[in-house]
Please model this.
Amino acid sequence: MPSRPSSPAPLQPAPAPRITGLPRPKPVELRVAASPDLYTEHFGLFARPFALAPDPDFLFWPPAHKRAYAMLEYGVMTHSPITLITGDVGAGKTTLLLHLLHSLGPEVRVGLISNPNGSRAELLRWVLMSLDQPAGLEDSYVDLFSRFQAFLINEYAEGRRVVLIFDEAQNLSREALEELRMFTNINSGKDELLQLVLVGQPELRDIVTQPNMRQFAQRVASNFHLTAMDRSTVHSYVAHRMKVAGRSRRVFSEAAVNLVYDKTGGVPRLVNQLCDLSLVYAFTKGRKLVGVETVQQVLDDGVFFAVNVPGIKGEL
Model:
């Protein structure tokens, strides 16, 4: 595998691949995103540092995420038939996926299928629609598969390969996963027409490692399980996002970040949520620093839900 730089380069406005199956942003969402935030001016920030939506500008690369992205990129660049990336809810899988999508060149045609489910024919319809291909309800499975195969061959003739990305792939049944494995049979020898990238929660790995999924597992040439951040990484993560948002001086005390880690288990999405709420609370009290008492007040008021966090069994 080729060596990687210690810190991935920031995203550049280079020509992107044709990515289909992605929703177009709604105007109202843009207006909301452009509106002033509650506490940003108070803390000398130009953006919310802990917004829940993935933002490439705030991308942070702890060691586990670097390794996960390396395996994701390795799988795509080496034409692996199936690449598998798993991790707990909020671990940062979607952020890595978005970074990958922005890094691919125009020679890669990408179809993104989110939360797929249904029968064989319905799965194939999801795939065709993600690639902007017709998939009528009246079409038989044979018609759909013939159209899909012809599309792959045509893309290959034009010098492109197709990568299908399945997000929330743990919702796929064993039958659907076996169907996807059959899709990779379209590849022949050195002719790589199709690659699959499956991203999902830990249950996906549990399914794939079952004895009756042996043939599928043998096609997985690249995989990684993304874990939560440790305590020291959470400290670096909080400081990084505050700096990107415009504040290099400390806002969260060391004790406050320690409590954030204890109550989130280092899951990035939960860290964002608790830090964001803590900034709101500090702002309402006119404080420029977030101390442990502010984080504790957020927790005591029950506005933060830490459900299914490692080590915090059943706590809300």
Observations:
- Residues 141-157 form the longest helix (17 residues).
